[in-house]
Give the backbone structure.
Amino acid sequence: MRVVLTRREALDSPDGVNIFIVSLAQALMDLGHDVMVVVGSLHSHAEYERVLAPRLDLPILALSSTPLTGLASAAAWLRAKWAIDRFRPDLVIHSEAVPLPLRGIIFQVIHDLEPRHGRLAPV
């Protein structure tokens, strides 16, 4: 199976979401699946290796080396859509909302479900 794991944020910190993404990607690769990890940014590959200590060299597509916001983020994710579509995933697992129409079965993982406030709260 071809699996894509996404996150809008950076992959350089040892937070729970990044640990989840790296652990899941490694487990899927151990089972023989093709995996692509797509993240908003990766400032330093060396720092990623230091703080998350991956066992495997994961295929990571980082959209930038710095955090993206606004139109730059939207443009980067549109470029990522092209790369993801070329990978032809069977399954896409989003760890944060990535509002792109992608191929395959799509799962949205909620890591921190809590009440939200403001205009976009229902989203």
About this structure: Helices lie at 16-30, 45-52, 70-87. The beta strands are 2-10, 34-41, 60-62, 91-94, 105-108. The radius of gyration is 14 Å. The chain has one domain: 2-108.
